[in-house]
Amino acid sequence: MLRLLATTAALGLMAGAAQADYVLHVLHINDFHSRIESINAFDSTCDAETEAKGECFGGIARLAAKVAELRDGLEAEGANVILLDAGDQYQGSLFYMTYKGEEVVEFMNAIGFDAMSLGNHEFDDGPEGTVTLLNGAQFPVMSGNLDVSQSNLLNGKLEDTVTLDVGGEKIGLVSALAMDTPETAAPGPQVIFHDDMESLKGDVQALTDEGVNKIIALTHSGYLRDQAFAAQVPGLDAVIGGHSHTLVGPMEGAAGPYPTMVAGPDGKEVPVATAYAYGKYLGHLILTFDDAGNLIAAEGEPVLLDASVTPDPEIAARVAEMAAPIEELRQRQVAETAAPIDGSRETCRARECEMGNVVADAMLERVKGQGVTIAIQNGGGLRASIDAGPVTMGEVYDVLPFQNTLATFEAKGATILAALENGASQYEEQAGRFAQVAGLRYTVDPAAPAGSRISEVQVLGEGGEWVPIDPEATYGVVTNNYVRTGGDGYDMFETEGMNAYDFGPDLADVLAEHLAAQGPGFAPSLDGRITVR
pTM of the full predicted structure? Predict the structure, then answer.
């Protein structure tokens, strides 16, 4: 559906200068998160059986095929096309754990990206991990609000702005990375963050001064922040973003239209576009400019990469080749335990269970330095037990197979009480929403009516003593991204949670590291954090 920019001048220019219009097709992805292999409906790696049923999406081979189809077809017609990535290629599957960015470089180069903005997860392994991308990419990687001049590894390798020559016109790109990246990743003290809004304003002005009159912001800051950029940064013609994994478009459940039009500071509307995550969609934004460089129209929608897209055979063969060592990774020993850890469905969905305690403790340990004191894990997210003795990464993934990420937020005590009631609301059905916890203890009465089954909820006080939860107090909470965004009935976390961040490390990695830190003498225990009447 065509979206015309609502200004009289723009309409007049469309009528009077159609022959001089310049049309730019922007293909884009964001938050791919190492989904090199195709994904299922839950955004996890697809198995062969599901693939055979035609129920898988994305994957780098399918993405490569669709990009080639669109780009080659458009360019054959004389159209102008660029391919952009709004960050977070790193982290999220065993491919990243195995290749640590080498796979990103290989496949992005093969597909032919024109530019990429850094995501926060490109810093998950510190600048040492980031430099793999910067050294290997055959396209510019940018982040305009970062000063990396003090980093021996990154200095001179990261662009502030990029200018592309496309069909005889200059297309300027500016960029910004989320300001809380030092809290969510590990850029280190040598990477200095400047205000994202002011950096964008300065970079747009610099490009304008150079005579560039078509400028796109390629950002990794989130859908809401992208709309703020569009509203406050003069001279922007479009914003292509990532970070918040937001679905926009005509499909059910979308957060807004594609593109989302925002009134800019200089009287024109600015399109904002993003393409969900995990390679499930390829964004396709079409921008039309008059001969003076004024944006006069924006249209497009995300393209669903489902089974109707046949994967590129060469890329698919390379993926299969690279997947072979991943089976070896599954067999890699990551820890050792002195006793089994019970993660059975019967226990973890009905009462305190050993795996629930271990996983919740691991979550809380990982983020306790951020002021988080409570962990909540849905029992249904625990899918297996672990035997005594050596623990392999494959066993860890059997326990936590969903590629959920650590999610932190703040919530009132009343919200936490409502969450615990939700966890017990389908007790008789052994529903997966039952809450396993750390830093918290409570009593559940299965015989009481749903909604009034929880009592004696306590949290650890500053002196280490157990005290009643205060409904009006605010607590730091950690869970997984599925629960934080309303999964298993935890809508109160999505609607009432504050300062949420859903894209921490993979929960399986958190558990593996926690078990390794306990040493081979570790044995799980039950300590009374959940009492069933």
Answer: 0.75
